[in-house]
Amino acid sequence: MGILTSNVDPSSPTFAANAAAQHAHLADLAHEVATAVAGGGEKYQARHAARGKLGARERIELLLDAGSPFLEFSTLAGYGSEFTVGGALVTGLGVVSGTECVIAANDPTVRGGSINPFGLRKHLRALEIARENRLPVINLVESGGADLPTQADLFIPAGQLFRDLTRLSALGIPTIALVFGNSTAGGAYVPGMCDYAVLVDRGAKVFLGGPPLVKMATGEESDDESLGGARMHATISGLGDYFAVDEPDAIRIGREIVAGLHWRKQGPGPVTEPLEPREDPSEMLGIVSADLKVPFDPREVIARLVDDSAFDEYKERYGTSLVCGWATLSGYKIGILANAHGVLFNEEARKGAAFISLANQRDTALLFLHNTTGYMVGKEYEQAGMVKDGAKMINAVANSTVPHLSVIMGSSYGAGNYGMCGRAFSPRFAFSWPGSKVAVMGPEQLAGVLSIVARQSAASTGAPFDEDADARQRAAIEAQIEREQHAFVMSGKLYDDGIIDPRDTRAVLSLCLSAIDGAPYEGRRGFGVFRF
Prior knowledge:
Elements: E1 2-3, H1 13-38, H2 42-50, H3 56-63, E2 70-73, E3 89-96, E4 99-106, H4 117-133, E5 137-143, H5 151-170, E6 175-184, H6 189-193, E7 196-200, E8 205-207, H7 211-218, H8 224-228, H9 230-237, E9 242-244, H10 247-261, H11 298-302, E10 310-314, E11 322-329, E12 332-339, E13 342-344, H12 346-361, E14 365-375, H13 379-383, H14 386-399, E15 404-413, H15 414-419, E16 429-432, E17 437-439, H16 443-461, H17 467-484, H18 487-492, H19 505-516
Parallel strand pairs: 4-5, 5-6, 6-7, 6-8, 7-9, 12-14, 13-14, 14-15, 15-16, 15-17
Antiparallel strand pairs: 1-10, 2-3, 3-4, 10-11, 11-12
């Protein structure tokens, strides 16, 4: 296996310009992350603390093993919408009592932790990650149930949350609920459908309808404690499996439950001892081009990701705008597909399809590093079978059964996003760098296509063509697509699992590969029909 050597010059003006652009993106990201961490804002944070309650992230920090990392998912959920950034929910991957778990914590400072459409999607995605990777789930519950003004967008799809919790249990994947506060209406079914329920005295309130609703529905007078308090559920209803005297006690009990699982991974495990890359990961910021129209060599990224910077490249001299090869990352074997020059031609599509099929034969997880403008267009390439060849690669991605990970480094346009295992193709984990862009095509191309269509339509009917109106429309469309393809917007819609600092990519992928090792997997030995 060859050792990658770097041609990056950290003292060059290009490196400095690239790094400056990435630092600007990271500053914007830090601002939005701070907004999510602030939840409902200073007023509601203070009110929550004054009640003697811990915040969502404080609860997570106490739950995790000391000094262990927490890989947060979908931090920017809801970005650009009417909802608070973060979706009133914190989700992520962390180690509890030596076991990797998926954690979901309601943020009660945001509308009482009520579930909104983005929080729902975020919770469902967390449960999907748990199911695919066979990871126990811990729900830290304090929620007023559905965000009622948006119930029309919530009620039907929210049923999937309860369905998925029970299906996890049926698969033998443990589910745990630590209830710190309200768990109201549909939210009451979270502890009701988890394998283990821990309720905090004088804190947990678990009921289908609170005292006001009970009064309206039945005329009955009741209070929170007799209707749904921890003591009642521990002694009368039987909903509570464990009675916690306070929040730290509930977290202690939760850790003990996980320790008692004696959970074991069923994946193939690492094949070698991990080795740090020979090249410096801190140089990542100067590698990706400030202008995404300018290509960069993905080998420079790979050299800073994989163990010992060792990379066994596949078909190095064929289909050169797609780099493929074998490596290990933190000891786990992986295959890598990385875009080199943006466009995917016929040779690249065939090369990618063959490499994916080999990875399935070798039962090897795949890492896709995106920086593509899509598959090549034009008469020469269409006549050469671009549609057939692109379909081969997409077929291979769609039917591959080894775990996939995706990192969008730069552009990810058109069907290139599909061939490189974008969100629609269900990668186990998908992350984006802060300056990346995802769309059907670039803003100028999209606006230009619409302009050409409008011009042809006018010519076919003999109508005059308004050049000034066309220029205004093109500018408006370009501005719209520029906004919509932004990494924050895409992440806000949960089209990835989060935006990461490029320098943290190796650490993030290491955590993901370790999580993937929770479940057994093997590659597909037979694919669908490939068009020849």
